[in-house]
Here is the input.
Amino acid sequence: MFISIFSAVESGVIYALMALGVYLSFRILDFPDLTVDGSFVTGAAVGAISIVNGVPPILATVFAALAGFVAGSITGILNTKGKINPLLSGILMMIALYSINLRIMGRPNLALLNEPTLFNQIDGFWGGLGIDKTLNGLVESMGVDSLPGTWAVLIIMTIITIIIKLVTDYFLKTEVGLALRATGDNEKMIRSFSANTNNLTIVGLGISNGLVALSGSLVAQYGGFADVNMGIGMIVIGLASVIIGEALVGTRTIAITTLAVILGAIAYRIVVTLALRADFLETGDMKLITALLVIIALIAPKVVSARKEAVRKKRKRTLLASQRKEEHSA
Amino acid sequence: MLNISSVSITFNEDTQDEKKALQDIDLTLDKGDFVTVIGSNGAGKSTLMNVISGSLKPDIGIVEIDNKNVTSIPEFKRSAFIGRVFQDPMAGTAPSMTIEENLAMAYARNKRRTLRTGVNKKRKLLFIEFLETLHLGLENRLTAKVGLLSGGERQALSLLMATFTEPNILLLDEHTAALDPSRAELITNLTGEVVDKFQLTTLMVTHNMQQALDLGNRLIMMDKGQIILEVSGKEKQELTIEKLLHEFQRIRGEQMANDRAILG
Ligand SMILES: Nc1ncnc2c1ncn2[C@@H]1O[C@H](COP(=O)(O)OP(=O)(O)OP(=O)(O)O)[C@@H](O)[C@H]1O
Ligand SMILES: [Mg+2]
Here is the structure.
């Protein structure tokens, strides 16, 4: 049990970067960008093929993010310069990327089993720190018997994700970042304050898909392979993370919302892990579970607030009625 | 300051819905001119504003600002020196962003947007100073989201955002029309104050005749895509609503007679 929750959190933190990307397009730019299904794989493909060809993993990861940036920008160009509607721009790019990803990898599946990755490269250094021993000792003392092999992935990824979160928070407060947010919030208004909303949309989608591809390349290095189909439904998973996080943590400020998205990504992985433990569910049901989760997360808040409102009104009515009764009897 | 010469624009040309929204318009505003624009629905007032701001490109004619031909400069670039307030109070601000963030975006209008934070201590003080001139207490709500403000408050903020960077030209399109009378009066007064304070060259569309008479040093009346009446200076000061209506009927009557003569 502990071990499966542990790996759920671990992959949650890696997928959180993808969720942050989806947050940027869906929420900040108000652009339902379906490029994600393709650009996630592009990141994995570029990262994997670079590593196979001897590029150091860190550099391969950067290449992956850049490739995602380019893919996202092209979606932005299709939308702004080509005047193609947002959904269609993303779908077109997603389909195009499927072929491109196959070309990049040269085959549908690329294994990284005996290759260096960001994670196994630091093993030697990490082992020397003795963190695993300390943490495992701690967990063991709480009565857990099956222990994770290494905490390196979780801790390193948490650090990377937090840094990227903080950079994102800062960026969204800069002059450019404010204009980017306004592009999604009130495009006409920010254009009347001399911002080039076309370029902002293009750059915004670039950054968004850059994060998605970064996440894709890390997932490939974590799992030890890149697969041309690994991106199917990714957009819905990203959306699920964003919506679950927002529902759990709230959206009061940008910093809180980005934190919510990260926690949402982790919560999503945990929910799926727990759901798959049920005997009647199979791995193949994961996408159905995801879709149901999104539906619930979208509908539940509305139902809850409608219910609250109804209760409030009812209470008010009974209060008024009892007051009137008192007046009568007085 | 602003020079419009022989500007025409026709929508849906050569179709049944053809609409000559502007016909051969000539208009010049000197620096500091405050021109109120009146005219019936569909007269072409908004179209004129859109041609000046660049959100519409005229079929023919030239728009010059500060002796510079801006006819083919895109809207977002032109807006570095044009301030606008729209009729819809929701249109001029970003609702999910805070008051100070909205002001910061307006502040960046005529500068290059950088990767430095939009709201800093120095700017905050400046924003507070400007917000105080609105007398709405918004200076105490810098971090409130603009979507929470009332229509009047949002419109006052829009007006401030459009003006405090002192644009070369200010365009107001029925910016008080969606407000209740007392809020409308507030915004009207604020408009007079800021235009005066910054000596802004202003074009204001209104359906409120009294407002058109009270504000500004010039008045133009539009009808069917043409400017049919121009009044300024002392003549404008002496103008009343009755005279204006009378004048309108007289011109309309003449036009109808002309049309009949042509047709006949
Ligand atoms: N984008 C457009 N496409 C087609 N016709 C348009 C378009 N914009 C305006 N028109 C038409 O051009 C004419 C002038 O419109 P405009 O909006 O300038 O009028 P207005 O004087 O601002 O009227 P109102 O007082 O109702 O705001 C109208 O007949 C309108 O229907
Ligand atoms: Mg109009």
User: Anything to note?
Assistant: The mean pLDDT of chain A is 93. Residues 286-329 of chain A form the longest helix (44 residues).
